[in-house]
């Protein structure tokens, strides 16, 4: 076949016609104008007809795999195998979903939000959401608006439960019976999952993404002893992707199958073997953020994550208690090829959720429940930063865990905090320029204050300073142009109004100019053991210089600049700081904003228990 894809071909136009504008725009984020790929092309009609002529009943045409799923006899299998265009035939696996309720004796204290001071009353759902700072982000106004989330499960009785009856469901489809109803009386699990991400019944449950739009896919047949066919899942992902889904969330994990069926082995958990894993990875390549439960195998002989959690880009979510303790049932990593899994954890023990076919609620345990909570947080992030690519989202989610410096195979990068994710800086490319965006949620920024970014170029002692502009709830800075591939470090600081005082948070970050992924500079994060005032740099300087201070304990401190006669020239900072290493800068101005003369100056730091001073030289 041709190695190039012609945009004027009939096949290309058919593929294009099957995508919504929303899907096209999402794809363009990651694929640019070449957003139609070979795996989007329809399966040749003559191939399908030839298989049907043998007597096969086609169930699904899976264009991403250039394959069909069909019901056939053994004699028909042999005849189909002789067709010249058939590369291989595989038996479709019947899969057992591990979604059973699990209980653990955790002493989880259940709270209500009566005195929480948040915008919404979460009732008994408060604990599971507050663990990941979801109410705090609701207070900022982010609840999944303008985001499309796809859920794959065993059915959804959403129209009758008070927490879901007002949900914005834009499409639903039953991939078991082939109709548009996802409620056939077997929707207990899916309804619980849906309520955890998108439920809204104030005073009882307020899910993280209650303002999102939802696409629902029933892929599992409960009436057949909780079995589901792998290709139902793949077909559902193809359908959701074509409709423009941004995030998919599934609470189904596949490893061991019914007697008489060939089970997967741990060796197959390599990110490239199972149909469901490959389908998730293809969806990710088209701009979809794919999230799934890690599995409930942690205290069983299998132990490890289950497909599609083994995917290279699919985010696997483990479960913790409200005390942030990893649940014994939560599946562990690594993948067979030694990649860390799960990526993150969220609460999956004693999760308060809707009960289908009632107006009530109950508690449940499992990674089936931690996954929708994490997916809801992803929707909150995308609500705040709608331009983010799925690759950026994945990086931010990992870095926003509580264990990013030392990820392991029990909790991955740790407990996800959506507030940390929103505060994590990100980049947006506009017409070849890179714009840095960051929220400051916990920092107090008053009228008259200014936010600055320090830019450090690797191999260059010069420090760039840029003022950030407030924009849609966050602060933005447009980088000057650097050669593609330049490694840059960034620090953020807040200049207090009135006296020119400067407060600088401790976090530092790095990225490669031309890339959109930012990494935390964990090697720069220092917990000092002793008080220390460092020599300023650069020194001598002619525009601005940086002063670093180590504080082993929280303290009130003052940093002042004096001339050689001992006269005070500038108060750089006066206030309190927690334990940590801090950076301050001086731009060679006095307390009135006027430039000082060239010469030697002394900078001194004073705390209740320590005083230190250093000399520096300013050259105009």
UniProtKB/TrEMBL annotation:
Positions of transmembrane segments: none
Respond yes or no to whether keyword Hydrolase is given for this record: yes
| MF GO annotations | serine-type endopeptidase activity
Q: What does the record list as GO biological process?
A: proteolysis
Q: Which InterPro entries match?
A: FlgD/Vpr_Ig-like (IPR025965), Peptidase_S8/S53_dom (IPR000209), Peptidase_S8/S53_dom_sf (IPR036852), Peptidase_S8_Ser-AS (IPR023828), Peptidase_S8_subtilisin-like (IPR050131), Peptidase_S8_subtilisin-rel (IPR015500), Secre_tail (IPR026444)
Matching Gene3D superfamilies = 2.60.40.4070, Peptidase S8/S53 domain
For the FlgD/Vpr Ig-like domain, which residue ranges apply?
546-606
Domain named Peptidase S8/S53: residues: 144-414
What are the alphabetically sorted keywords of the record? Hydrolase, Protease, Serine protease
Keyword Cell membrane listed: no
Q: Which family does it belong to?
A: Belongs to the peptidase S8 family.
Query: Would you tell me the protein name for this molecule?
Result: T9SS type A sorting domain-containing protein
> Which lineage do the record's taxonomy fields give for this organism?
unclassified sequences, metagenomes, ecological metagenomes
């Amino acid at each position: 076949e041709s190695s190039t894809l012609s945009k004027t071909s009939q096949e290309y136009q058919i593929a294009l016609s099957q995508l919504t504008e929303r899907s096209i725009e999402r794809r363009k984020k990651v694929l640019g104008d070449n957003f139609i790929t070979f795996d989007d092309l329809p399966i040749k009609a003559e191939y399908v007809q030839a298989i049907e002529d043998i007597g096969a009943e086609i169930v699904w045409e899976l264009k991403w795999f250039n394959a069909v799923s069909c019901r056939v006899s053994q004699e028909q299998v042999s005849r189909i195998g002789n067709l010249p265009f058939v590369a291989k035939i595989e038996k479709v696996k019947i899969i057992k979903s591990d979604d059973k309720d699990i209980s653990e004796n955790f002493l989880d204290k259940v709270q209500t939000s009566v005195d929480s001071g948040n915008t919404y009353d979460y009732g008994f759902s408060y604990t599971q959401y507050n663990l990941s700072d979801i109410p705090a982000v609701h207070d900022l106004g982010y609840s999944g608006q303008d985001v499309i989330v796809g859920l794959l499960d065993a059915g959804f009785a959403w129209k009758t439960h008070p927490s879901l009856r007002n949900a914005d469901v834009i499409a639903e489809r039953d991939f078991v019976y082939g109709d548009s109803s996802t409620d056939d009386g077997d929707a207990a699990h899916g309804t619980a999952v849906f309520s955890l991400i998108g439920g809204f019944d104030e005073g009882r449950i307020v899910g993280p993404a209650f303002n999102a739009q939802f696409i629902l896919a029933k892929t599992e047949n409960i009436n057949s002893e909780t079995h589901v066919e792998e290709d139902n899942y793949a077909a559902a992902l193809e359908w959701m992707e074509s409709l423009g889904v941004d995030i998919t969330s599934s609470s189904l994990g596949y490893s061991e199958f019914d007697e008489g069926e060939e089970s997967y082995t741990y060796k197959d958990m390599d990110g490239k073997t199972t149909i469901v894993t490959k389908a998730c990875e293809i969806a990710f390549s088209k701009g979809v953020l794919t999230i799934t439960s890690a599995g409930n195998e942690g205290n069983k002989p299998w132990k490890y994550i289950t497909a599609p959690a083994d995917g290279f880009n699919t985010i696997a979510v483990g479960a913790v208690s409200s005390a942030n303790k990893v649940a014994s049932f939560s599946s562990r990593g690594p993948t067979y090829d030694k990649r860390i899994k799960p990526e993150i954890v969220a609460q999956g023990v004693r999760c308060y959720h809707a009960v289908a076919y009632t107006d009530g609620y109950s508690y449940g345990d499992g990674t089936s429940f931690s996954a929708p909570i994490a997916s809801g947080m992803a929707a909150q992030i995308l609500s705040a930063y709608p331009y983010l690519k799925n690759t950026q989202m994945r990086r931010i989610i990992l870095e926003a865990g509580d264990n990013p410096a030392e990820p392991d195979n029990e909790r991955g990068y740790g407990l996800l905090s959506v507030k940390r994710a929103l505060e994590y800086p990100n980049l947006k490319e506009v017409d070849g320029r890179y714009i840095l965006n960051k929220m400051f949620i916990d920092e107090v920024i008053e009228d008259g204050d200014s936010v600055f970014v320090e830019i450090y170029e690797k191999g260059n002692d010069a420090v760039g300073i840029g003022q950030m502009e407030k924009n849609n709830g966050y602060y933005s800075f447009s980088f000057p142009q650097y050669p593609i591939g330049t490694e840059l470090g960034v620090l953020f600081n807040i200049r207090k109004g009135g006296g020119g005082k400067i407060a600088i948070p401790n976090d530092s970050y790095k990225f490669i100019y031309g890339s959109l992924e930012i990494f935390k500079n964990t090697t720069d994060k220092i917990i000092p053991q002793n008080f220390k005032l460092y020599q300023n740099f650069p020194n001598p300087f002619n525009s601005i210089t940086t002063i670093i201070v180590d504080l082993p304990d929280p303290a009130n401190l003052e940093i002042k600049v004096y001339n050689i006669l001992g006269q005070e020239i500038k108060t750089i900072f006066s206030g309190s700081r927690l334990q940590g290493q801090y950076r301050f800068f001086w731009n060679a101005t006095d307390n009135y904003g006027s430039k000082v003369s060239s010469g030697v100056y002394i900078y001194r730091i004073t705390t209740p228990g320590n005083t230190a001073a250093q000399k520096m030289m300013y050259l105009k």
